[in-house]
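Because showing beats explaining, we let one protein speak, sequence and backbone structure tokens together, and leave readers to judge.
___
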Amino acid sequence: MSDSLNPIDLVECLRRSDKDARDQLRQLCLGPIERLVDRVIVGYRPNVERNAVIDRTLRWVEMYLRSRPPFFFDGMDTRAFLALILSSAYKMLTPPELDGPRELTSMDSEPLQCPNGYQVWRFCLPCEQVGGDWLGVDHASGIDLWALMIDVTGHGYASYITAHGVSQLWQTRSIVELRASGKSPREVLCVMSEELEPVLPDEVFVEATLGRFTAAGQASVAGAGFCRVILRRAGHECANLRRIGGHLLGSFWGNDHDQANWSLLADDELTIASDGLYEQPDVDGRQLEDRILEYIALHLAPGRLLHNALVEIVQDVVGTQPGQDDISVLSVLRSSEVRP
């Protein structure tokens, strides 16, 4: 790093997708990242492709730095800046999941209670110990609940690194401000796609489903790629499937993302899931999507949640055997009693 460019300046240039800044970051980090990845691979993942992991880690570093506020780097010199990068990258490269067996993970033992009157449930079943799906929930403003499903091409360690990087993008100042300003999910996906275009590897694609839920019960969901939304009205023992889509994130700039809108009443449920759920073969060898509504109806006894029905379907079809892809599900229910 040159003496004339401090960390704050470098990160600001990265946010503008400046190629010189990206080259400068790579020059600073490449050697240390290579040594870090080699150490991690020896301890955790001896069979992964080294060069791919190094490349994706460097791209993750850029997304991580762009997600931090400018004051985060106040007073840092080059050595402190690099130490921050390596410490953060090490935590990302060595998640606790790598130490244990692959298993169904309930991310919320109890539903997440949102101040604008919604409950949220999440679970995931990675194809390996870690995977390329990521679930994000933002209800910090107390006005709108935002729910994001990210599905990166492939599965396993390399896809996990990219998905973790996209989760950093979700926290960038520009994306947070868009959500707080009341922009539509379609508009937010458009900006995320523009932000990802210079960072993603050429061979990597990102599907995304993004939903906004207002205190008044208005739900809007937009898609990037081929996405599905399941809606179950309160008390009904059946559900409806809606397909939405648009260009994959990072592959094109434009506002062609489909967006569907619903008015949710008390105890209505809406679920988004990664394609690993729908493309998983059932006991007859057919993709679950072909009969997903039939399976849901069989598991929706009175008083039961759509989310629980989907978890049971996954357990029945996949069980503890390796699946074909990562499976993640995020469910939102409008509460019977909305908090003032």
Observations:
- The chain has two domains: 7-94, 99-334.
- The two ends are 52 Å apart (CA to CA).
- The longest strand covers residues 218-232.
